Amino acid sequence: MFNTRISLRTVLISSFLALGLILVAAYSLVAKDHFIRGLDAAMAGNMEKTARTFNEVIGVREIEKIREFSGFDVASQWNSLPAYVQSAFPNGPGDSGQLLKKEDSSWFSHPGFIIFAMRYDTAYGPLYLSQKLTHPKASTVLPQAARQNRLFTLTVSILVITFIVIISWLLLRHVSRPMAALRAWTHSLDNEKLSRPVPDFLYPELNEMAELIRNSLSSVQQAVDRERRFLRHASHELRTPISTIRSNIELQRKLAQKREIIANEQEIVDRIDRASLTMKHLTETLLWLNHEPDTPLQPEVVDLPELIRELAAEMTYLLAGKPVTTEISTLPCNCNVPLVPARIILGNLIRNAYQHCWEGTVVIEQRGNRIEISNPVQPDAHNAPKKSSDITGYGLGLELTTTLSERIGWHYTSSLAKNIHRVVVEI
Questions:
Q1: How far apart are CA 128 and CA 78, in angstroms?
Q2: What are the b/e assignments for 12-27, b being 16+ CB within 10 Å?
Q3: Residue 427 to residue 409: CA distance in whole angstroms
Q4: Strand partners, 282
């Protein structure tokens, strides 16, 4: 699945370019508008000058004899002007000096014609001037200014875009270097670097972020270290009382062989035996979890059928008082595996099957490096009465088995179908 997220660099570059294009387009429109307004102002000034000159040289009284003067159509009455002016401006100019203009241009084409009209009041009455510029005439009047304006606008636009691109590149380069350094520093953090001062990333915001990252990771690392120390100390401290309990239980059993003991006393001894055995497995698991991830595991040749039967025999106390039978089927197989995690994983699976089976048959089948354990599960098993063995329940369960299997590279699956829970381990 493709990652559709846009990087910060792409967002910044796109934003700068979009801003530059918007500025160039806006100023191009403003330049065009000012250019046209300037031409209109020049035309208005030219028409006003022509009207003043006409009035001084010829006069309004001679208007019936002269219709064109200095390239403009001149008349004392609005209705006397040519038809193109009448159709373009039916009402005529209202105020003196007001320039009327009409053209047929569009965004992407030059105008085919431009019509100008103006009223100029004199002492003897109004004077009306008009002119129609078609493309051939317009090309002789405006081409140089238009070309210069387009060239100037294009040059300024290119310079602005180039300037924005250069500034954007320099800014991103200046900002991206400390950000890339912060990213690389974050990825390279370890216990040694967490104890060192934070490097300088040029900007106070980045330095503050780096300090927050270091403090957060330091807090997490301290919590992990405390947990590891607790596991290490608790595991090692438990080994001594567990060994004492186990040895005293063996001693008590040897002494019991020489005398007769009552049933209650034997039940107490069995409970202590089961509790010490559970503590022993728990301690092994805690010690194993305390290993560093990079610590190499020392494999050894293990007789897999013998290990399975040994673990199954150790867990038989979990079936006491329950109408449950076991079927163990194995084939000769020697595997080169780490012994401690193998005992923990297989022991957890067998213990889980024995604990959660209330009646029926637990089947343990081993074929080569494939081990399958299945047990019936009652739908209302959570309502079943608690046995004495549940008091010594093993809390890590299948979650621990999954974690350890992934860590040492074993393939583990678990399924539940038709009230039969089945787990498969491939070594």
A1: 6
A2: eeeebeeebeeebeee
A3: 8
A4: none
